[in-house]
Protein: NADPH-dependent FMN reductase
Organism: Niallia oryzisoli
Amino acid sequence: MNIVALVGSLRKDSYNMQIAKTMQERYEGQLNIQIADIGSLPFYDQDQENNPPQSVKEFKESIANADGVIIITPEFNWSVPGVLKNAIDWASRVEKVFINKPVMTLGATLGMLGTVRAQMHLREILSSPGVQARVLPPGGNEILIGLVQQKVDVKTGKLVDENTLHFLDDKVNMFIDFVKSV
Ligand SMILES: Cc1cc2nc3c(=O)[nH]c(=O)nc-3n(C[C@H](O)[C@H](O)[C@H](O)COP(=O)(O)O)c2cc1C
């Protein structure tokens, strides 16, 4: 199953990027996860949307060709980081590549609430007319990783907290079934 991952942090030592890399390795047999380089996308500009820069074309093609998308994001000021919103905005215009695309969202923060506000915003964004993604339904499927600094290995940066990993395994299996059902 081919999956594109969007990571909402550009920071070199980003916890969210580390989780994306942990998932890439851990689910290798089940999922082929490619992490999109959303930091290389220019700011969305309506004047360019019909003939966008190459980086945008490639990004949109990668989503169009994927079986599903996993969004792994921190929360910035109670919402999604601008870099992630920018990527979704490009994808929501002309060829609307998110329409009916299965999407799973998760996120990690230093605080206890584990991106709950950001993910609530994200679900709204993903429901908007230009996006219309099929998001793994809530109701036990919210993956909110709070206090992430206590759940990663300080040397490797990899997610090592067993409870979180088992929860993630369960939700990834659910997402795989969801992708197959769409
Ligand atoms: C601009 C900015 C805004 C932030 N706002 C929030 C917030 O609203 N809620 C929260 O839990 N953490 C917030 N944080 C802290 C992040 O959880 C923390 O920086 C986290 O490590 C970012 O994810 P990363 O490690 O993947 O870069 C904010 C951090 C920054 C830099």
Observations:
- The CA atoms of residues 82 and 147 lie 22 Å apart.
- The pocket of flavin mononucleotide is lined by residues 9, 11, 14-16, 74-78, 109-111, 113 (CB under 6 Å).
